[in-house]
Amino acid sequence: MYPNNQNKKDYFHQVNGVEEIPEQTRVEAQQQREECITTVIVNLFDKFGYKCDVQPEFPKELSPDMLVEKDGQKVIIELKAYFKRMVCAEPEVAQAIKYAQAARDAKFADKIRVLLITSGNMVPVQECGFFCASDPIEHTINRYTKLKAENKLEKGLDKWDARGIYSRAEEKVRKVTWTPGEIPAVDIHSYKDFLMFLNEDNRPVLLGCVSVQAIEDSLKQLGLKFELQAFKRLENTPLRVLMKHERILQIKRKKTKEKTPKKKQKTNNGKKPEIIQQSKQSNSQSNGNGNTQKMKQNIGVKKRKEKPIAPRPRNPFM
Question: How many domains, in total, are found in the chain?
Fold first, then answer.
């Protein structure tokens, strides 16, 4: 009955007891979020001077979202298009660690750099189980047990996506073989932190966890106001609203039209030809039907000045 084997709740939702038909499904709205964050980050790194490759080829059949390169330096990027309340922590970091390990083992680049970027709530490095606890799995279980309990009290369609991510958190962390101190990580909170991470040349492997504030600050500093607006809408727009209005996350740039110099028109005594033509036509109509044709023929023809005739001398004998 519904396309792509979707459920009715993916197409319909109730507002104040009234059933509404949205413009797109829940799956389509989530895909639009992913496309939006990809476009924003591509334009951001284009301003940094990097060449961007979306969904690049990668060792061990892994598939990071993006690979950017500049002057031989390669940066692997993992994107998470989350709503602002969704937590980005151990399972997402585990995925970024797998990319760093695969790139290091395959000698993918001289310096391995991995960025984890989200529009959700990024947990600081000091609170992540891989960097603050002796047992990351136990730390993950404790965190996401609380998150799943809090998620049950929330309203809206975003809670369903969050529940699916939170329920698979422990499974993702268990798939990573991790040695404490193997891959160092840093927090990126501002535009300056971004530049420091990209220019850091001492450590062979480094993971950067990028907060929402860092993306917004970088977009603002680089003058990407349309991308900044789209990113703010991405993090603040609930899934239900995005399903109803798909234009919210569309990035539109105003096209500037080039001004062409106007050609100067010849004037007659300071008047434009169009005005002269209209005045001549009005005069021809006022002179009657007989003179109209003559006036049309004489338009644009200069009249010759007639010499005055001298009066005849008077005859004195008359």
Answer: 1
